[in-house]
Amino acid sequence: MRGTWPAVVFFALAALVPVVVRDAFLLDGLILLLLWGATAAAWNVAGGYAGQVSLGHAAFFGLGAYAAALLGTRWTLSPWIGLLVGAALATVCGCIIGFLSNRLRGPYFVLATIAFSQVLLVVASRWRALTAGSEGVPVPFRPGFWTLGIADKRVWVYLVLVLVVLLYLIELYLERSRRGYQLAAVREDEDAALSLGVPAQRLKVAAIAASAALTAVCGALWAQYVGFVDPFYVFSVDLSVRFCLATILGGIGTPLGPFLGATLITTLETYLRAHFGGIGAGRVGIYLIIYGVALIVMMRVAPQGLVPWIGERLRRRPAPGTAP
């Protein structure tokens, strides 16, 4: 448990919010904040610990969202079953992408992941018989936990918080276990890792497959909470960049970093849209300019992410009773 007290504080505060807050808007913001943090943490499994930077992770998110939505609307199955089906589909696709990663590195792998997500976008927007095309899929509200028809947002907070804690524990395992050290070796120097007997190819495939399955789970929960699946959103490159950006801002390859990064991005985006969303002519409002400048400033101040930056500042503080 050494070094986990910041995460304990973070999750405890999130768990206390529904007890003291009744405002639906604030609870909705907390749910989305935790969901984006969970998705960023799922991306971090492959992008942070295995070094397989992907800008097509929205493909796995969309698979989970569509699996839960379509199985519920067309065959009246439980979204929990759709969640499992989406995770299984994403795992298969993740294995395919992981197989490609053994032949493509650097920008070529990034381009391959983007192409994969755009292929799924075209399929989902054109296959009207199954996905209703670009019109999207509305998810009907069916009351009950088995159907995830939950009106109380406080229940949603705790439901998503369970997923968040699970993802944090997975990343904590990757940071401190033998497998995690092997992944770090592959990330830093794959050729050197291979010379030491590390099964680099198998580990990369496993990391991307696990990351894909976890991302699909987040997508399934998101679809049930929002109640609508739009192919141009769930398969967009913008969404993939959001996962990646939250992890990088919080601290790539750290257990708590994705959650802090998602908190920062979601809070900043919501505040700027509320106060500056109506200012500016044309399609791009001034709040997007302020948002971009703020992100650039944060990356200049803390290029390694919030978690390493805060840790470095704490290490520099003199111990009590010693001269500065």
SSE diagram, text form:
Layout: H1 5-20, H2 24-49, H3 58-75, H4 79-101, H5 107-126, H6 128-131, E1 137-138, H7 153-176, H8 178-188, H9 190-195, H10 200-226, E2 228-229, H11 231-234, H12 237-250, H13 257-276, H14 286-301, H15 306-316
Antiparallel strand pairs: 1-2
Helix pairs in contact: 1-7, 2-7, 2-10, 2-12, 2-13, 3-4, 3-10, 4-10, 7-8, 7-10, 8-10, 12-13, 13-14
What overall geometry do the principal axes of the alpha carbons give? globular
What is the CA-based Rg, rounded? 20 Å
Number of domains as seen in the coordinates: 1
Distance between the termini: 29 Å
The total of beta strands comes to: 2
Helix and strand element order: HHHHHHEHHHHEHHHHH
Summarize the structure.
By secondary structure, this protein is an all-alpha fold. The protein has helices spanning 5-20, 24-49, 58-75, 79-101, 107-126, 128-131, 153-176, 178-188, 190-195, 200-226, 231-234, 237-250, 257-276, 286-301, 306-316, and strands at 137-138, 228-229.
Structure report:
- With 324 residues, this protein is mostly helical.
- The protein has one domain.
- The protein is built from 15 helices and two strands.
- It has a two-stranded antiparallel sheet with strand order 1-2.
- α2 crosses α13.
- The longest helix is centred in the middle third of the chain and has 27 residues, at 200-226.
- The model has no long low-confidence stretch (mean pLDDT 89).
